[in-house]
User: Fold this.
Amino acid sequence: MKFLDEYRDAEKVKILVDQIQSLNIPPINIMEVCGSQTHTILKYNLEELLPANINLIHGPGCPVCVTPIGMIDKAISLAQKKDVIFTSYGDMLRIPGSKNSLMKVKASGADVRMIYSPLDAIRLAKENPDKKIIFFAIGFETTAPANAASILTAKKTKLTNFFVLSSQVLIPPAVQSLLDSDLIKLNALLAPGHVCTVTGTKWCGEISNHYKIPITVTGFEPVDILEGILISAKQILSNEHDTVNQYKRVVTKDGNLKAQETIYSVFEICHRNWRGLGEIKNSGLRIRNEFSHFDAEKNFEINSVTTNEDERCIAGEILQGLKKPNDCKLFSKDCTPTKPVGAPMVSSEGACAAYFNYRKVNELV
Amino acid sequence: MNMDCPIPENEFEKILLAHGSGGSLTGKLIQDIFIKSFNNDLLAKEHDGAVFNIDGKKLAFTTDSFVVNPIFFPGGNIGELAVYGTVNDLAMCGAKPLYLSASFIIEEGFEMETLQQIVASMKTAADKCNVQIITGDTKVVEKGKGDKIFINTSGIGIVPDEVDLSPSNVKEGDKIILSGTIADHGIAVLSARENLAFQSEIKSDTAPLNDLVEVMLKVSKNIHVLRDPTRGGLAASLNEIASKAAAGIIIHQDKIKLKNEVKAACELLGLDPLYIANEGKLICFVTPDDAEKLLIEMRKNSLAKNSEIIGEVVNEYKGKVVLKTLIGTKRILDLHTVEQLPRIC
Assistant:
């Protein structure tokens, strides 16, 4: 399959690995920002091929994991309301709130439905005029255009029973927040290809210039990741700090201007709390006032819920790259995909789930 | 009176959808509730059906319920699936399927014409497999208390004396043959259920495997296990065998075939085809000496023309399945703990 098989090609992988191995690399930390990249690294066990000096650090790029627990609790509260059909992308259903998850309240009778696109929620609203359809809009710049488009469609078709609970977040402020922190020393970043498809690469250039750190906009296949690592390592060795676009087959400098326009016609930037990371200024998207009749937070009384993180969970440190999933005492014991304590164990982009699902052979006892 | 509760405590208070996904939660439910409570040697073998002797005849008996949604999907419908599913479970025991039962739980308001259509396709499917549906049951539940129609089929067949298929027969060096492409059924049903439009229609692979198995058993007396990788997909079936046989299994990702349209759908949705259901495929563990000749014969059958040796049993990784990835690295291919959900971005 074009644009897929050639990026999983064993011969190309070998050539790249030989090139990486031939470099005389000092100990370096490279963060892959996106959770899908983390999963590729674990799914193909790329670390088996890399020199020990290259330490891959898993970043905060899992949209499900960073959705604050308070927002999950709000979602659960809304889902339990009478005459509500609560819709969400599949990954969100299992994420633990303070006491419950959407999947559990579904099992208890709430009408929670997994959808593949926000337009499915629009369809449900049209088909069920006597119900209130709430869509849980989460994610980064990648999902924001479709989520915004759903509100524009609802307006155009004069829907009065469609609502959006918005918990959209933006990647650049989160990356800056990590680089501002003294807690971890990052030598290079693999920027998230999907996000850059929408945003373009300009923000990466600004960050690499400001923080003097090489950034490679990287795709999601083994060859992409290894190319990203090779480009990063070479820049580190030659003391350069440019932004390089490895994912040229998809990402352009300006990104998808139409998608950007759609996002900002419906949403505006706000401060946002990130699960595990705390508040990051200007890192969220909220629904603009002119669309407030679609805003679930403004149209429903949400029961006050006391949000409560499990103190044993180190998801925050994992999302910042300070620790790895198997550094956690709960990992695969008290915290598993069936009984998750933290969100990274649930999401298909979560680092803990990647470590749990794709164990290495040498971890067998 | 015995006051001991036979049902052990479970970590979940309620049944979740994941308990039916074929992953580790399903396995735990079966182990902790059913096997522990019903407690007998035949059930404990955890084969696709039970094999036992009555008056010197070796019989296989199995049952399966079909709750597929939608009830008509590209490549099949719930009726023929209910026949083929049980026929295939008998075939995996090495049995020649003979008789089936069919029980229907129908929701009030269900269209009579649709029921007739389903039943007609069951008759056609039964004829194709050379089995008869000889008994059954009908229940109607109130509107909203069911989902259109559920069908349960049970089946009985005769196992030739010389045939003995069981995970405990698996030996180091055995080759593992997969009879074709994977994930066709699961993706076909998913795309029909969710109205996902792909460029080309993905069809279920639902098909009866009894004739294929009969040929295979004639070609080789050294087949150790057969399994149809339905719910939970190839990964679940291999894990069940590895665990039950306490054997180590290596499979080679580059040998596992996928139709291009199925591969594209899996990529788009972020689903791993190794965990997606099949309804017309089988895996076979056979001695290395017989593997090639069996493969040649299997490829002559239209249902197995894409057969391939995908792996082998090794002397390490006991009880586990190891995947040699497309790029040559290795990792464990574990049971999924929960059902796969499509990714967000």
Summary: Chain A touches chain B through 52 residues (CB under 8 Å). The CA atoms of residues 85 and 136 of chain A lie 11 Å apart. DSSP finds 14 helices and eleven strands in chain A.
